[in-house]
Design a protein that fits this description.
By secondary structure, the protein is mainly alpha-helical. The chain contains 13 helices and no strands. The termini are far apart. Bound molecules: fe (ii) ion (2 copies).
Length: 322
């Protein structure tokens, strides 16, 4: 199946996403079996499903203009059209670089899950299958970065050392929550951008492929979260809620590396300050997070003073949950 055959609905579609009820019991074996069948039927190979040889199109965006971090700021008004497109190019490279790190980390959690399970049950088989999807995605992201001609935006070594702690966080709702945190915010942003005809065609294809395959991952992680919360006692649930809220505060700021600003001739601190104080920061982060936060709320992940204070600090909460 090629991605060109796939019809996607405009803008904020939820195509491919299964509704997971945060309050109902989960039949994981049946659901994982369904996800396994879907993985066998619908998967893409970016090596052949993206036309890598076609040149970038002039005047097309690498990120929708209104989602570029400085959009609407005073700095933005002073920037030329070329500079704005160039900033979008650097920001997508930063997001995809972060995506590679994140998929690495998620895959290691899936490996742990497969090793911890019954080895031959549907859930273990699906965990292994999902690692295959993520390997193809990271290869696709790396290929796209290479095509821009820009180097990837690497995270500082100290931070990577710190991130290793996540390999030891006990599996459970905080790990499925961290998975959703990455997958759902990117999903929402990509569903919008992939339907935007002003975007570079290769990026639209990349986003379509990613959205279509990630729909399964989101379903799996949501099911995992619901099951995990329902099978735990009060103290364990509170621990996982708190850990997820802390991870959220670390993850959001990593999407856009502040080094993107000097790359387009803007002072790093000035760019970062403009990004953080822009009213669009909250608009964008709320937009990307809303379906996920509502699900977390339904699944019982948004309770307790500490948890809510941490979430408020991310500025991602919809107005009615603040
Ligand atoms: Fe992925
Ligand atoms: Fe994924």
């Amino acid at each position: 199946m090629t991605v060109q055959d796939v019809q996607t609905k405009p803008d904020f579609s939820t195509e491919g996403l299964a509704r997971v009820n945060g309050r109902k019991p989960v039949d994981m074996e049946r659901s994982a079996g369904r996800l396994l069948r879907s993985s066998a039927e619908k998967f893409y190979d970016a090596e052949i499903d993206i036309d890598w040889d076609a040149p970038w199109e002039d005047d097309k965006y690498f990120l929708p203009e209104h989602r570029v971090s400085l959009y609407g700021t005073k700095l933005w008004k002073k920037m030329s059209e070329e500079q704005r497109i160039e900033l979008g190019r650097h920001e997508i490279v930063s997001i995809l670089s972060f995506g590679i790190y994140a998929e690495n980390l998620l895959s290691s959690a899936l490996l742990r899950m497969a090793a911890k399970g019954d080895l031959t049950d549907q859930k273990s088989l699906y965990s292994l299958t999902e690692i295959g999807d993520e390997s193809r995605h990271s290869t696709m992201f790396a290929r796209l970065i290479n095509k821009t001609g820009l180097p990837p935006y690497k995270l500082p070594k100290g931070f990577l050392g710190f991130a290793k702690i996540l390999h030891f966080v006990p599996l459970g709702p905080s790990v499925s929550g961290a998975t959703l945190l990455i997958e759902e915010i990117l999903d929402r942003a990509q569903r919008e951008a992939m339907n935007d005809p002003r975007m570079q065609p290769q990026l639209r294809q990349l986003m379509k492929i990613h959205v279509l395959e990630e729909a399964r991952h989101i379903t799996f992680a949501r099911l995992e979260m619901v099951q995990g919360m329902q099978s735990r006692g009060k103290i364990s649930r509170a621990w996982h809620r708190g850990v997820l809220a802390v991870i959220a505060n670390l993850a959001y700021p990593l999407l856009i590396n502040p080094k993107v600003y000097p790359a387009v001739g803007i002072n790093k601190l000035r760019g970062l300050w403009a990004q953080q104080t822009s009213p669009n920061y909250r608009v964008n982060i709320q937009f990307m997070s809303e379906p996920m936060i509502r699900f977390f709320h339904e699944a019982g992940m948004m309770e307790g003073k500490f948890t809510m204070a941490m979430w408020r600090a991310t500025r991602s909460l919809p107005d009615d949950l603040c």
